[in-house]
Amino acid sequence: MSNKSKGSNAERELVRLFTEQGWRAVRVAGSGVNDDSPCDIIAAKSGRSGYTIEAKSSKSSRIYITKQQIQDFMLFSNNIGLTPVIAVRFNRQGWIFLNPLLIEDSGKNWVISLERALSHGKRFSQFFEEYLIQ
Fold first, then answer.
1. pTM for this structure?
2. pLDDT, tens digit, 9 for 90 and up, residues 59-81
3. Considering 31, 57, 77, 113, which one is annotated as catalytic?
4. Distance of alpha carbon 2 from alpha carbon 123, whole angstroms
5. Which fold has domain 3-131?
6. Is 31 one of the annotated active-site residues of the chain?
């Protein structure tokens, strides 16, 4: 399976997670391919704030994201008035959600380590707690 199809499957899994919790979520066509769609998913719930989500998954204990990709992601999120969120999944850890301001600068790229994700990130129910179905 190619990296592109693995990434697409991870994004679909994340959309299902939002949907199961009563949210509406859509994958953004062409995400990661061109400058016109600098996020992977847009999610919202009626009467609540919406989110742009950059989803990353890895077998490694570190995920690298280019500085340009994060800059475009943040600018896009701000321009459309949605809150940016980084969603990461490491093997056998499930999805962890982070504020983009919590990722680390490695010089050339931004990096999210498994250790940092576990210590600073939150699970779906913690991150989006106030928005879950009652």
1. 0.86
2. 999 999 999 999 999 999 999 99
3. 31
4. 27
5. Trna Endonuclease; Chain: A, domain 1 (3.40.1350)
6. yes
